[in-house]
Task: inverse folding
């Protein structure tokens, strides 16, 4: 039987290209808009022909059971995932915003953080950043269901010890924490996006809440549900009976695209990210749930003061510089286009992701 994910990927895979064919250069107009959007979109979609590997990556993930989950123990998946973290936008927008919030934001109001848990920690990218941001923390733990991810995290800790403990563990199944085991700060970048239904989201938020002390804080990143209503997508070719989708190519110049439903999204509809890496595209399937569902599920789990934050650009970033991490897009280095804010303006205007922060009730905050 063909899975939803297989249909979704097949809908954006054109004819195979010659492996020696050069990558198309992204051509921008004075407003920073991509002029040759069809060529770039076709190339990125063609790269998905590598889905002999990519489809293996769509297995069971943190979201639970099912054949449409992203399997981070798949063939080379962990290494692709780690490389995808090196894209410039991941540091200048995602990490800047996430870590700025983790440290208390502009007012620096977050104090008394002695224990930290990073759920769905992957290869430990944010776990290490949190350890460095809170040098006085007495305990920092990274948790992930993928053995290969945790193996990479442990290897980095072994090579450069900074005091992080990593555990292979399902967030939902092992969430019965005792009071003394709960944490002041829990983070989970890109965890809730694997929930395919409100029921799954309720269950996951309840599990996350069991890791957090009363008065403690939870911080996460989700795919922006609003992308499902982006009218600028490029329609894909589908087979009879399959769902029409749109490729949001406005993000191609940043090294990725997102494929979303072309009609009003329904609960659990797939959002497929394709992120450029040297080892082939990293294909990750997230699922649509409305923004209000996240708020309501977190409230049911015992969280309050729930806030949504779009990514912000690190104000310290200056000039453009050559970005090897998003090759073949590194040719965008241009003496006449060296303003990062200008380059990332479309990303900021149409944010593909959001941060959510909230507090566990009962702490008197």
Result:
């Amino acid at each position: 039987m063909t899975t939803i994910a297989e249909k979704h990927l097949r809908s954006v895979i054109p004819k195979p290209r010659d492996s020696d064919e050069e990558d198309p250069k992204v051509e921008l107009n004075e407003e920073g808009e991509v002029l040759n959007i069809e060529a770039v979109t076709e190339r990125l979609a063609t790269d998905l022909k590598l889905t002999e590997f990519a489809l293996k990556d769509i297995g069971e993930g943190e979201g639970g059971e099912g054949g449409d989950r992203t399997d981070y123990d798949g063939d080379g998946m962990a290494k692709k995932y780690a490389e995808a973290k090196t894209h410039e936008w991941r540091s200048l927008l995602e990490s800047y915003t996430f870590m700025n919030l983790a440290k208390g934001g502009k007012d620096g109001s977050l104090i008394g953080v002695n224990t930290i848990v990073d759920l769905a920690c992957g290869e430990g990218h944010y776990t290490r950043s949190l350890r460095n941001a809170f040098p006085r923390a007495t305990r920092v733990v990274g948790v992930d269901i993928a053995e290969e991810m945790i193996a990479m995290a442990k290897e980095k800790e072994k090579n450069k010890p900074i005091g992080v403990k990593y555990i292979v563990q399902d967030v939902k199944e092992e969430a019965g924490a005792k009071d003394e085991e709960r944490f002041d700060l829990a983070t989970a970048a890109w965890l809730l996006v694997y929930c395919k239904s409100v029921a799954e989201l309720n269950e996951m938020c309840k599990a996350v809440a069991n890791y957090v002390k009363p008065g403690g804080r939870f911080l996460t990143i989700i795919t922006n549900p609003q992308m499902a209503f982006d009218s600028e997508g490029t329609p894909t070719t589908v087979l009879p009976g399959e769902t029409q989708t749109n490729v949001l190519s406005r993000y191609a110049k940043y090294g990725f695209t997102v494929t979303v439903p072309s009609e009003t999204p329904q609960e659990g509809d797939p959002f497929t990210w394709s992120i450029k890496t040297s080892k082939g595209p990293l294909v990750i399937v997230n699922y649509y749930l409305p923004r209000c569902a996240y708020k309501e599920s977190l409230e049911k789990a015992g969280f309050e003061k729930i806030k949504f934050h779009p990514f912000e650009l690190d104000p310290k970033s200056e000039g453009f510089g050559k970005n090897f991490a998003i090759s073949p897009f590194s040719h965008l280095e241009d003496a006449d286009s060296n303003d990062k804010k200008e380059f990332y303006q479309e990303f900021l205007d149409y944010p593909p992701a959001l941060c959510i922060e909230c507090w566990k009730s009962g702490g008197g905050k």
Observations:
- The longest strand covers residues 212-223.
- The chain has one domain: 4-11+56-360.
